[in-house]
Design goal:
The protein has four helices and no strands. The protein is mostly helical. Keywords: Toxin-antitoxin system.
């Protein structure tokens, strides 16, 4: 976690919280992880991620732009298998830390 963090308190319906926590647990995430992911994307993308509030046409334009950016990126390539292996390792480490902690 970054050294300069702040606390965020939110109010949400208890049933929504319980159901969301159970769904996220199934993929190795906590509610805090999910909120952190959402807010990071909002900060990075300058608004809510596509699919949450935009039309299909707007999402299509955004997606095409992101694909073109990826194709134009001169950075090092990573295979799908390597990306999945890296993500699986991160998820497994999260689960292990939760069980050990």
């Amino acid at each position: 976690m970054p050294a300069n963090t702040t606390m965020l308190h939110i109010r949400i319906d208890e049933e929504v919280k319980t159901r969301a926590a159970a769904a996220l647990e199934g993929v190795g995430l906590t509610l805090s992880d999910a909120v952190r992911i959402l807010l990071t994307r909002v900060a990075k993308e300058g608004g809510l991620p596509p699919g949450l509030t935009v039309t299909e046409e707007t999402h299509d334009q955004w997606f095409r732009r992101k694909v073109q950016e990826a194709l134009d990126d001169p950075g090092p390539l990573m295979s799908h298998e390597d990306a999945m292996r890296e993500m699986r390792a991160l998820i497994d480490a999260k689960r292990k830390a939760r069980l050990d902690g």
